[in-house]
């Protein structure tokens, strides 16, 4: 994604959890904010999207054991991406032709994300330029576009 961002792609983002740093191409959750704020709704939508992706990966890993972490196969990132894409295509074909999914029942519980995100607050550091400042501006712009009817908690600080 960083490569695509650096080559002009500005409306596609990866979604990360709080363990990842905010980047212009990687959106991460914010520290706790009040329920009626844009920041709160941004976190809710981000968490919901991550849950959907993680559930889908759980389905793929449960069906296609080569994707499971127990069967470590080392490939270059481009080959690994092709393998994941092939598994997703095969999964969609199984759905289209209504073939049964033979999966373990607990596949969804292996990587079940928490229902709510809690992000530890970091020290407030004023960064005026650089990738993090760009990422913060992008994050703020996304919140303004997606949640225009909610109050921005930053305006109250």
Describe the structure.
The chain has 157 residues and is mainly alpha-helical. The protein has one domain (1-72, 106-147). 45% of the residues lie in helices and 3% in strands. The chain has 5 helices and 2 strands, in the order αββαααα. It has helices at 2-6, 38-63, 77-96, 107-110, 131-146, and strands at residues 14-15, 26-27. It has a two-stranded parallel sheet. It starts with a helix and ends in an 11-residue tail after the last helix. Residues 105-127 have low confidence and may be disordered. Its cofactor is a divalent metal cation. InterPro entries: HARBI1-like (IPR045249), HARBI1_dom (IPR027806).
Global morphology: globular
What's the overall average pLDDT, rounded? 80
Radius of gyration: 19 Å
Number of domains: 1
* Largest beta-sheet characterization: 2 strands, parallel
Strand content: under 5%
Biggest sheet: strand arrangement = 1-2
Structural class comes to: mainly alpha
**How many strand units?**
2
Per DSSP, the total helix count is 5
Terminal Cα separation, in Å? 32 Å
- Poorly predicted regions are 105-127
Protein name: Nuclease HARBI1
Keywords: Hydrolase, Metal-binding, Nuclease, Nucleus
Pfam families: DDE_Tnp_4
Main location: nucleus
